[in-house]
Design a protein that fits this description.
121 residues, mainly beta, seven-stranded mixed sheet, 1 helix, 11 strands, 4% helix
Length: 121
Amino acid sequence: MIHWPAVNPFDWNGIPAERMNEKLTRQVVHTGRLTIARLELKAGCQVPAHQHENEQVSLVLSGRLRFLLEDGQFDVGPGQGMRLAPNQRHAVEALEDSIVIDLFSPPREDWIRGDDAYLRR
C-alpha cells in the first residue's frame, strides 16, 4: 500500500502486490482524494457481498466480471466499466482471469486501517 505524493508519476511495476487469497491479488495507491487499486482476479474468484461509503468505478482491462447487485446482475468485460454508488451493496464474481482498476472516492479508510477481511476469504 502506497500513499502517493501530490505530483509524481507511479508505475504499477513498483507497487507491491498483496495476495489477499488464492484467487485475488491487489496493488493499492492512496492519494488525498482517491484510492486506486489494480486487482488480478483468477476465474472463480468471489468477492462477498459488502458495501462501503465510497463511490466506486471499476474498469475492466482484461477478462470478465459479474457484478451482483440488489437490482440485478451485470457482466462487464474489457474496455467496459461499472459505477457503484456510495453504500450500494454488491458482490463480484470473476468469470475469467481478469485485471481490473478500481477507483474509490473518498479514499478507502477501511483498507488504510487494514479492515479488509472480507477480501481475504
